[in-house]
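Issue 218. Parser rejects a valid record. Input:
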Amino acid sequence: MSGHWLRLANLFGHQHGIMVADVFHENVTGPNGENQVLAFTPKTAEPMLIACLWNQSPGKKGAPHLYSFAAVTDEPEPEVTEAGHHRTIFNIKPERIDAWLQSDAGNLSTLYAIFDDKRHTYYEHRQAT
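Output the parser choked on:
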């Protein structure tokens, strides 16, 4: 496993967060090979509850700590694939939030059950402005 994946593995089961969003943006290749940025929004207009992992890195030589996070992604919904992107944010069900945030690294089966029970939202898309 590369160092990047080892760091992520150390966060899974330990440092979880939720990001609430109405839209997410992705770069895709347009019909003429040009880069396009698409905005994806749930057709239901419900806010997305995006599962995240967070980290704190110590600053060097007295610099402040760097706090960062990454949204968890999954295989794309079919309409996201059709739009030209190969991943989709992981939109967690509201009733699974507490289990995600109060994760137990000793009980990863609970976390994997959350992944197996995600919200399958239909995402409409448009070109971002």
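Fixed in the parser; the record now loads. The beta strands are 16-21, 24-29, 35-42, 48-57, 66-71, 73-74, 88-89, 123-127.
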